[in-house]
Backbone:
């Protein structure tokens, strides 16, 4: 249950002198050293006490538990943001991902004493290679975004090795995730935008026009951010390869195609996998995250090192990669996340993973068909794991009603607002991704709620415009927050 | 401003929603159309070039961020930047209020005035911006 009362900052609960635990009085009497300043040089000691809050243990616990209750979480309510944020993590992954043998293992434990963990890494590399169709996998990157950067660094290394420094451009569709141009630019590539065609896919004429001897790669999500599968994908990858470029697969939407279509077979050369979107790990932004990268043999020599390997009797970390782009993460990556992903894939098996994607697609299409009677769906085609709709029809009754107002109202029904205003090519966009884990009952309730909101837009628009009504904080002034952010609690406290 | 959506006669526009307002023979101001500002919603941040920078037609001259989205700004013509509307740093809302007036972004000296003929008239632009 979500808490209804706002929690005051912990600093305002502070009671000077209060303690959460009783510690012995500091002092080493036998040596005569009694103060911190007796041990540390003057330059390393504080002049003034830090302003840490002072509270009893129980008050501290209650504060943080109450704060946690202000959150919307998937354990208490539906969020149609889907895998974009983080898919539901089956509890079995918590169980086996947190075995003592995994959590207590030091990364520098000798290989002979960490065979189990190395086997998990090795087999996970193989599993992910199998799901993607690629030859080799690195588990090092700590998040999808880092995986993307690593993938593009390998593209860069490939052209350097093949002495084609003139390949400086990366083509990216206008509907792409924002990380794509960011990763390409971070690697020093020039980003060339491709306009989408009427069906929201890559426009082949536009692609042909922008391809040149300068093209290093095309970055693509398939299905794309509208939830639509690129029908021309084989033609697209052929055109790019004929022009001498490489194909980068943004694995953000992998949850839609597992066991149905492999990116490597579509003609891609490299992809990153956001494990939080399918394989039961936290999102890289909240972390710890994981963003493995899979490549074909063209790019395999440039993988980060080391990687987990097997010599027929022993698992070991292989550093024998002379053209490697190097190490991209301390130690071997976020190992616990690998243990979780390994558990997820082991629990589902290949048939189970195929079923996951089928259910994700079925759920999205079910919602699309039901909701399109009320809401405008700009691309009314069979979608994959997600689809986009808009608030165009609802706006007609009151010009102030827009996507933001509608999704804020969802919060009053205990549902988290979905991704909005993305992709940018759809005005007033509402992107819905239910994922495979939601039951038909939950989907039906969501449809009922959206129907109720549609009715309110016509009959009681004020209820929509002033939503949310039941949260501890109602409508926030996002404009003021963005224009005049006040990020320092103490500066505000001082002004008072 | 009630009339802020009306495109002045001396304005030419691009498909990417930038405008060029010609006040003088070889001097002009660049901004984004009222339609674009409305689509973006409340603008909260803008990044503009330095005075003296030369930018080619079609290249980015800055970026704009609203509560909904971030977007690049493209040069409608090749030019040198001769002035920048520094007031926008403090008051980006001027772009929402009056994009063709106080919401101008940069003042430029055109490198090739003929390029103006390649831009859209207000009537042509109104066809795509609705």
Residues:
């Amino acid at each position: 249950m979500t808490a209804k009362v706002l929690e005051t900052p912990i600093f305002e609960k502070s009671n000077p002198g209060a303690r959460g635990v009783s510690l012995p009085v500091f002092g080493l009497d036998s040596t005569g050293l009694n103060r911190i300043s007796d041990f540390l040089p003057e330059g390393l000691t504080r002049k003034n006490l830090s302003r840490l809050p002072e509270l009893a243990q129980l008050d501290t616990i209650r504060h943080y538990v109450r704060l946690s209750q202000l959150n919307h979480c998937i354990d208490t309510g539906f969020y149609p943001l889907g895998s974009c944020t983080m898919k539901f993590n089956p509890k079995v992954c918590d169980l086996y991902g947190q075995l003592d043998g995994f959590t207590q293992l030091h990364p520098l434990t000798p290989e002979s004493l960490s065979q189990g963990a190395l086997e998990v890494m090795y087999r996970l590399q193989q599993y992910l290679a199998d799901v993607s169709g690629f030859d080799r996998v690195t588990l090092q990157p700590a998040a999808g975004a880092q995986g993307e950067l690593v993938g593009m660094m390998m593209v860069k290394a490939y052209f350097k090795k093949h002495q084609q420094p003139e390949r400086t451009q990366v083509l990216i569709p206008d509907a792409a995730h924002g990380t794509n141009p960011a990763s390409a630019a971070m690697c020093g590539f020039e980003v060339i935008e491709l306009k989408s065609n009427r069906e929201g896919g890559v426009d082949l004429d536009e692609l042909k026009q922008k391809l040149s001897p300068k093209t290093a790669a095309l970055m693509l999500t398939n299905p794309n951010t509208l939830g639509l599968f690129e029908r021309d994908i084989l033609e697209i990858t052929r055109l790019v390869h004929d022009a001498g470029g490489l194909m980068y697969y943004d694995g953000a939407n992998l949850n839609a195609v597992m066991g149905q279509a492999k990116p490597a077979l579509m003609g891609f050369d490299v992809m990153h996998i956001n494990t939080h979107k399918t394989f039961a790990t936290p999102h890289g932004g909240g972390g710890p995250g994981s963003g493995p990268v899979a490549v074909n043999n063209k790019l395999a020599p440039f993988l980060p090192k080391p990687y987990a390997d097997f010599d027929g009797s022993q698992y070991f970390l292989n550093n024998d990669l002379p053209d490697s782009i190097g190490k991209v993460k301390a130690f071997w990556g976020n190992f616990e996340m690998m243990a979780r992903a390994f558990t997820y894939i082991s629990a589902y098996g290949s048939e189970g993973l195929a079923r996951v994607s089928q259910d994700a697609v079925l759920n999205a299409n079910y919602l699309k068909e039901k909701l399109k009677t009320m809401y405008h769906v700009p691309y009314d085609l069979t979608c994959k794991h997600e689809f986009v709709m808009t608030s165009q029809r609802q706006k007609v009754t009151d010009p102030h009603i827009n996507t933001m107002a509608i999704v804020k109202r969802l919060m009053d029904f205990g549902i988290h607002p979905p991704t909005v205003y993305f992709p940018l090519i759809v005005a007033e966009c509402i992107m819905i991704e239910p994922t495979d884990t939601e039951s038909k009952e939950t989907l039906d309730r969501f449809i009922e709620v959206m129907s109720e909101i549609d009715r309110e837009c016509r009959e009681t628009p004020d209820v929509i415009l002033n939503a949310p009504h039941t949260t501890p904080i109602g409508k926030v002034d996002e404009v003021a927050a963005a224009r005049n952010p006040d990020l320092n609690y103490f500066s505000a406290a001082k002004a008072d | 401003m009630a009339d802020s959506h009306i495109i002045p006669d001396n304005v030419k526009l691009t498909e990417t929603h930038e405008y060029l307002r010609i006040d003088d023979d070889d001097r002009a101001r660049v901004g984004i159309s009222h339609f674009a500002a409305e689509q973006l919603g409340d603008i909260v941040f803008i990044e503009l070039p330095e005075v003296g920078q030369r930018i080619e037609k079609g290249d980015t001259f800055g970026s704009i961020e609203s509560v909904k989205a971030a977007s690049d700004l493209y040069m409608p013509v090749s030019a040198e930047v001769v002035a920048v509307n520094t007031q926008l740093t403090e008051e980006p809302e001027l772009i929402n209020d009056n994009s063709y007036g106080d919401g101008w972004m940069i003042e430029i000296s055109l490198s090739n005035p003929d390029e103006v003929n390649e831009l859209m008239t207000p009537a042509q632009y109104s066809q795509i911006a609705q």
Observations:
- The interface with chain A takes residues 39, 42, 44-45, 65, 67-71, 92-93 of chain B (CB under 8 Å).
- The mean pLDDT of chain B is 92.
- The helical segments of chain B are 34-40, 87-90, 93-97, 122-128.
- Strands of chain B lie at 11-13, 18-22, 27-32, 43-47, 54-55, 60-66, 70-74, 79-84, 106-110.
